Amino acid sequence: MTDTASPRAMHTPVMLNQTITMLNVRSGGHYLDATVGLGGHAAAILEASGPNGQLFGSDADPQALTIAAERLARFRDRAELQQAWLDDAPSAVQDAELTPLDGILCDLGVSGLQLDTPSRGFSFQSAAPLDMALGPDADRACSARTIVNAWTADRLADLIFEYGEEHRSRRIARAIVQRRPIETTTALAEAVLAAVGRRPGRRTHPATRVFQAIRLEVNRELERLADFLAQARNLLRLGGRLVMIAFHSLEDRIVKRFLQRQSAGTEPNFRTLTRHVLRPTSVETAQNPRARSARLRAAEAI
Asked: Could you tell me if 182 and 148 are in contact, meaning their C-beta atoms sit under 8 angstroms apart?
């Protein structure tokens, strides 16, 4: 089985029904999927907006875009795809002359394609070079290998604490420094495991938060998210919808606080549609365990 065949065959878009409902997809609407990934959500949006709805899909990962293009080929010229980082998606969709938009979707985080392709270095299930770049034009001066092998213990600990929300960050950072050079994903995971051990009954590997922290820094994901949100309202028509799916508390907190600010005051830009964050159903998480941490928030442009 090839690297691309597996995720293409097994790809299940997260919280699909809730997403289409909260986007309020209409026939003939214009939509932006700013993290199009393998195209699962995009295909559903195009189906619901038929026969003449338009979708612009962007993603930092050209490998994902190749698969998305295959999935969306049946929609012909109703779908346009372009490689772009999240914070560059607003200018890209404006250049495509699809604004103002009826809806924007962002499904944040890494996809099964990235996690299940060992050479990408996102997973510690098999040995691979430390990489974790979502796109080929990521800042190579801040690669995962550089962070792990060149940063001071204090700087590394601060990153793991802030972006990984790991309270044992100092102990982990010291263990990483002591084991340098660390060249592979499995070697990094072993260093973390040696530092903190595995808690009985805990489902996730103790290195999960460390990998999250490094990945967020390599790709500047939180910074890009904040920059994207700051541009979102200018892309939407009155009544247009913004739907954000986050997978950990750092992303979700940025989205939550943005919507709180934008829906408050005498001249709000958004009306929040999700009073409480929406979560996947028990049926969905049973069928797709990776969906269990998903958190959806939505708002309407006013």
From this structure: yes
